[in-house]
Automatic annotation (TrEMBL), chain A:
The twin CX3C motif contains 4 conserved Cys residues that form 2 disulfide bonds in the mitochondrial intermembrane space. This is Mitochondrial import inner membrane translocase subunit. InterPro entries: Tim10-like, Tim10-like_dom_sf. GO terms for biological process: protein transport. Mitochondrial intermembrane chaperone that participates in the import and insertion of some multi-pass transmembrane proteins into the mitochondrial inner membrane. Also required for the transfer of beta-barrel precursors from the TOM complex to the sorting and assembly machinery (SAM complex) of the outer membrane. Acts as a chaperone-like protein that protects the hydrophobic precursors from aggregation and guide them through the mitochondrial intermembrane space.
TrEMBL record, chain B:
SUPFAM superfamilies: Tim10-like (SSF144122). Belongs to the small Tim family. This is Mitochondrial import inner membrane translocase subunit. It comes from Linum trigynum. It comes from the Eukaryota. The keyword Transport applies.
Amino acid sequence: MDPSSVDSAEVQRFLIQEKEKAMMNEMVAKLTSVCWDKCITSTPGSKFSSGESACLSNCGQRYLDLSLIIMKRIQSMQ
Amino acid sequence: MDFSSMASQAGGSNPKMPTEKFMYHFKSQMEQAYAQKFIETLGRKCFDKCVTKPGSSLGGSESSCVSRCVDRYIEATGIVGRALFKANQ
């Protein structure tokens, strides 16, 4: 096997890692968009109020809880 | 195009390229795509928040709103990102 070819095992591992990174980035981006809309209701200030930053932090975690409930529900239907 | 489908597609390109070069090139493409998408998102979000009635030019308060909005959105990305990582542990 040609060690410099794109088909090598090393490159495959690399691509799997990069894909995972990309999926994580995508998830954070989507969640930030949703949570921004939910939590930042007025004109952006020069810093977040404590309510706004708590909302953003909670939003992320609650979305994860929600995803878990949805998965379990769907699994219980099978 | 979203990042994960770009990553999948790039897997089949140019089999003759040396590995190091390919990985470097691939990473920088992914970073560029991410930056571009982020900038698009900033544009949408901050236009929504700061330019409620588009006039014949951007006013001073609109411009400073956009600056603050960019800073806050970057900060929000960090807060949400950290909340996700904490929960995964």
